[in-house]
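User: Here's a chain of 328 residues. Predict its fold as tokens.
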Amino acid sequence: MRPLRSLTTKASGIALGFAALLASVAATAQTYPTKPILVISPYAGGGGADAVVRLLTQYAGTLLGQQFVIEPRSGAGGNIAAEAVVKSPADGYSLLFATPLLAINASLYRKLNYDPQKNLTITAVSVTGPYVMYATGNLPMKNAADFIAQAKANPGKLNYGSLGVGTGPHLGLALFASMAGIEITHVPYRGFGQILPDLVSGQVHLALNAIGVADGFVQQGKVKMLGFTSAKRLPGFPDVPAIAETVPGFEVGGWYGFAAPAGTPPAIVERLNADFVRAVNMPEVSERILKMGLFPESWNRADSAKYFAREVDKWGRAVKAAGAKVDE
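Assistant: Prediction complete.
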């Protein structure tokens, strides 16, 4: 039997070692950041998402006292970017620009080299925004209830365009059809710029996209806004209903945030969250976000993580409704 003194000495050594580790982590968090922070984005430069990440990191970087460096790594539905961050050191110097792709991929891909919920820590969800449900002006309808009635009277004869299999607009409308109990045909495109002319001509009957992308055609009556995919009506559009008024519980949309490798010290994650919240609340930032048809969010780290968990569940139901799976 080992002497009691020896066991006590060993236990004391372990306790001192653990205390030293905690002190080291605390000291690291206090001095963080000491160098530029890399943000890996799943999108190519120049688009709306790129504008959002650069806006957020510009102002958060000023608060942190360090520059954020944006590195686009598009491809594989966002998985190339996510895997790069998962494999990075968990020290707060490598972040993922997180979007619904991260939540969708948890169910869409049969095989992933990472687990979005286990291998990444959601640091902040800074911006959210609903889609608009656009319909062709060639059909006699004013809202989602009218579209559902048309679809039930003509099963399988109406269609919807999307940005491709597994994208938010595809899965969002598949979930809508499932919850509304209708049958509509999916027509994938490479971009909304291709969908819009067909929506105007009536070859495509329905599509989801951001606020403002079809304003000219909406004003001319060639495209109709049937509603927003938010839970409630938007303050700036009191006459445009929420789809949830017709299909209770239906809510999908886009969001932008940041994720760090799992194991990143909590103090660093909290620091990042606090400064992203401060940045998004700056009038010059929040006003620009609102002009994009998006909404600034002030969620703490815990609320951001809960939101992401709900997104994983919701998009999982959408993937199931669409019957969409991607092999990798």
